[in-house]
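ENTRY TYPE: protein
WANTED: fold as tokens:
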Amino acid sequence: MANEYQLAEANEPSIDQYLTFTLADESYGLEILKVREIRGWEPVRDIPSTPDYIKGALNLRGTIVPIIDLRERFGMEKVEYSPVTVVIVLSLGEKAENRVIGIVADGVSDVLDINQQDVRSAPDLGSKIDTRYMQGLYVQDTRMIMLLDVNNLLNPEEFENLVE
């Protein structure tokens, strides 16, 4: 009996939840377990000597959170922030070394349950988005959602320089 249960458990699909959001009319997804909160855009404090895509930092209940504009990180056209512009606050890394960053997105869409068997490898499309930031692609009806690997959005050397 125990073997039947183990076999059934091994065949169950692996479903993960992703928060989807938009950038330049394209859809992206982040693992929901990495999302701490979603905030409306608010002015941030500048951090000198950082790349242009790092907009600054905000104090989130005692935690200094660097804010990254994903449009600029991905080499997309800059736009003015609007009332629907959001900052998605993410927890990165392992629990012992949890790091927090915020990413600016044009807007938040929804939360999807995605079967990992339906996620396709990130192809080299010659797109503006470096595939090292991608976990894979998911197709939902007629839209393609790029699933991002949040741990690669800001490399460790950049992060260390921001929080010292």
Observations:
- The CA atoms of residues 34 and 145 lie 17 Å apart.
- The chain has one domain: 13-163.
- The mean pLDDT is 82.
- DSSP finds three helices and ten strands in the chain.
